[in-house]
Amino acid sequence: MFHEVKIFDKKGKVKKVLSSKKLSSEYWDSFFNNPLSEAKKKGKGRGQKPQTSTDCDDESLD
């Protein structure tokens, strides 16, 4: 949730008002168009090491 933002000039007069709806839409547009999110979709970046499964039976814990 975003709150309305007012931008003031040097004299203290309201220069611009950004509505909460506009802020929200700009945020989510930038979120989905982020180059890092695109890299994750394409599989770029550092790979993960495969996890090795260990046997955790109660019988083998002696």
What keywords describe this structure?
two-stranded antiparallel sheet, alpha+beta, single chain, 2 helices
Please render the helix and strand layout as text.
Elements: E1 5-8, E2 14-18, H1 20-32, H2 35-42
Antiparallel strand pairs: 1-2
Polypeptide structure, described:
The protein is of the alpha+beta class. It has a domain of 41 residues. Helix content is 34%, strand content 15%. The chain contains two helices and two strands. It has a two-stranded antiparallel sheet. The chain is elongated and about 75 Å long. The mean pLDDT is 78.
Fraction of residues in β-strands: 5-15%
The major β-sheet equals: 2 strands, antiparallel
* SSE order, one letter for each helix or strand: EEHH
Strand sequence of the main sheet, in spatial order? Answer: 1-2
How does the helix and strand content classify structurally? Answer: alpha+beta
Radius of gyration: 25 Å
Low-confidence stretches: none
Number of helices: 2
Please give the share of residues in helix. 25-40%
What form results from the Cα inertia axes?
Answer: elongated
Number of strands: 2
The averaged pLDDT comes out at: 78
Q: Please report the distance between the alpha carbons of the first and last residues.
A: 55 Å
Entry summary:
It contains two helices and two strands. The chain is α+β, with helices and mostly antiparallel strands.
